[in-house]
Each structure stands twice: as structure tokens, then as C-alpha cells.
Amino acid sequence: MYDDILLKIGKTPLVKLSRVFKEYDFDLYAKLEGFNPGGSIKDRAALSIIRNALKTGEIGPGTTVIESSSGNMGIGLAQVCSFYGMNFICVIDPKTTTSNIEILRAYGAEVDYVAEPDPETGEYLPARINRVRELLQTIPNSYWPDQYSNHYNYKAHYETMGEIVTQLGEAPDYLFCAASTCGTVRGCGEFVSDNKLRTKIVAVDAVGSVIFGGSSAKRLIPGHGASIVPSLCRPKLVDKVVKVTDLDCVIGCRRLVQNEAILIGGSSGAVLMAVDRLKEEIEPGATCVVIFADRGERYLDTIYSDTWVSKHFQGMTHLWQKQPQQKEMMMAI
Ligand SMILES: Cc1ncc(COP(=O)(O)O)c(C=O)c1O
After folding, report:
1. Tens of pLDDT, residues 240-255
2. How far is the CA of 180 from the centre of ligand 1 (A)?
3. Domain-embedded: residue 331
4. Which residues line ligand 1 (CB under 6 A)?
């Protein structure tokens, strides 16, 4: 029994994945962040940032919190602001899915829509941030959590890594996690570094994201990747970066639900495919942990829609069709 819903943020389950790489001699566990009450890992960052700002007196009842987010951080903030009785304006763009907009509104958030990308870069993120700055100037008693540079974002994930070590009973050899603001990768990386753990951190980024270098390009799947280098980013804490395509995300998500019956979001499919990319170099007997940032329900009209997938990746469905031996295994069970 819990006194309030925010106490359910964190302490998410760690579940063994014994089927998806069964022919490889490493153990794989998934930290299922979709079990947070707002549905994603961003509940942790939202709570950490808002709690700190309440503590310092920067915000209080009557404050209007304003943030740019096309998905999970917005929902995490909408949940926490609703709990503390604060207004929340989420600045979104055309990439935000209808279901995310509905969830934001259901929590009582106001949605502010940026229709045009930044004219210089062609990206929506700078346009959304400009809009946040405009709103901050016009709305009294307003506050910007600024997830891309707020240290209470990454500090929340010190605990995420601590939970993983406690749940496993030891430090994993590898941690795979998706990067966008770099809050997760930095917080987990700092925990590893401060405690001198053996864990190698693998950051999973999107092809077309610039976080760890490369040039910006169109990406279809939200969650991981960014068109800017976040000021929270500390490449020194990362042992390896794996860049994953949109198609890889679809393959990863579909493979996981077919093999392990776990419905995950796009960045989690990316993380699974990063393990696939490194599977030959992971030492036998190693323990690997993947962080799955959210659940699959927010991707029903994209990743899990055959119509959407065939529109964007024609002729690729054979890449995640069930293998006959998998079917036999399942029948035998
Ligand atoms: C689904 C999903 N995966 C991964 C991330 C990346 O997490 P972080 O911002 O901590 O780098 C996010 C961030 O919003 C996300 O929504």
C-alpha cells in the first residue's frame, strides 16, 4: 500500500530475457521503466526536478511549469504538476502523437502547439525551446524545468543504477541505455564511476541524431536521439556508442514481443538491437542489463501498426517474422 502515486515512481522490475538471445552465453536483464505510473523513465526526472524546485522555493502552488516535450517528459511533468496542484504547459510539435496529446490533456496539462520547425536548422526542438522562452516572458510565476540542462534530471538516475545493482546483487558487466537529454546515461554513468564499478556503459543513439557526433537527419521514432548536444552529455562516462536506425527500432520491438511477450517502446527496440550489434563481442558468462524506457502502447499506431510499417519500410517484414523453431518451442511450453 502506498500513501500517494508519486511513491510508485522508481523501484521498477528487472526481468530476465532468456529467449531473445538464447544461443548466446550471456545473461540479459531488462529494467522495465514502463512500470512507472506515468508510463516511462521520465517520471523519475520529472519528480526529481519538481521536488528540488519546490524545496528551494523556486516554485509552489500557483506556479505555471512550462516545458518542451513531445512525449514522456511532458507526461511525467503533467502527472507531478497535477499532484502538486500546479499548472503545466507542454510545448509540442507535429511529431507528438495524438495519444500523447490526449494523455497530457487528461492529466490537466495545457498543450501549446509549434507548427513550424526552426527556419535555420529545419528542426522542431529549437523552435519549441524558443516558444518556451516566449511563454516564460509573458506568464507570471512561470518556471522552465529545462530537462536538457537541469542537473536534477541526471541525478534521478543515480538511483536507477543503484536499483539495478541492488536487484542483481552485483554490478552488471554491461549497461545499455538510450540517450536523448543524456539524463539516464549520465546518472547511471556517474554512479558507476563514483562506485568504481566494472560496468561498461553503452549509449544507444539514433542515426540522424547529433549527440555523439554525426549530422542531423530526419528521424521517425521519438524518444532517443536529439538534434542538439545536451549540456548534460558527458561522453567520458560512456564506453561505447551504438547508433540505431528507425527500422532497427521496429525490428527490436517486434522481436521482443514475439520472443518474450513484452510490449516496449521505440527506444527500447533500439536498445535491444544495440545488444544484437554487440552480441559477438560480449564475453561468455557476462551479465548485461538493458533499460527499456517505456511501454509499447504509445506506439500502437506506428511501430506496432502494419500499415505504418509497410508505408515507411516496404518489403522489410521478413526481418521480424517468427522463426518456425520459436513456434515449436512455444507450442511445447
Ligand atoms: C522513450 C524514451 N527513451 C529514451 C529517452 C532518453 O532518456 P534521457 O532523456 O534520459 O537521455 C527518452 C527521453 O525522453 C524517452 O522518452
Report:
1. 999 999 999 999 999 9
2. 5
3. no
4. 40, 42, 71-73, 178-184, 223-224, 265, 267, 293-294
